[in-house]
Amino acid sequence: MKNFFFLVCLISFQVFSQTEKDNIDTNLNLWHQAAAEANFEKYFGLMTKDAVFIGTDASENWNVEQFKVYAKPHFDKGKAWKFIALQRNIYHNSKEKIAWFDELLQTDLGLCRGSGVLQLTPDGWKIKHYVLSVTIPNENVSAVKKMNQKHDQTLIPQLK
């Protein structure tokens, strides 16, 4: 009887975990779709009130209110940005009601990497922290480093 109970609990956990991963995957897709459709309210409604968005530029480390100021003009044009997830890995800790993920994206910037943290709220899974990075093939890193050198040398003293 103990073994049967253990097996039922194990199967229930796996089903719950897969269901939660599916919910998270759906919300991430809805978030990207809201940007593609320039649906400002829906997009930011899928983020927590204390969310952080880190963009591709070193200066882009925004709380959600700062990110709204940046994003609003893009959304007002009727098309913000279109990110299509090509691959996504989701990790989940149901006890702490958090999940984290990484995704490879097709974007107008080329291939990008997104990663972040979601929190389970009374309204469902919401993005709490998101990082967007442009991917650079290893063979191009030296050229990008050289291209960014002047900018980085100017910015580093300001950040210290």
Sequence-ordered SSE layout with sheet pairings:
Layout: H1 2-36, H2 40-45, E1 47-54, E2 61-63, H3 64-76, E3 84-93, E4 98-107, E5 110-121, E6 124-134, H4 141-159
Task: List key phrases describing it.
single chain, 160 residues, alpha+beta, Nuclear Transport Factor 2, Chain: A, 6-stranded mixed sheet, 46% helix
Order of helices and strands: HHEEHEEEEH
Question: Residue ranges: pLDDT <50 for 5 or more in a row?
Answer: 4-16
- Major sheet: size, sense and barrel closure? 6 strands, mixed
The helix-and-strand class reads alpha+beta
Shape: globular
Strand order in the sheet with the most strands:
2-1-6-5-4-3
Give the number of DSSP strands.
6
Q: Roughly how many Å is the radius of gyration?
A: 19 Å
Mean pLDDT: 90
Percent of sequence in beta strands? 25-35%
- CATH fold assignment: Nuclear Transport Factor 2, Chain: A
Assign the CATH architecture: Roll
The multimeric state of the shown protein is single chain
- Please give the alpha-carbon distance between the first and last residues: 63 Å
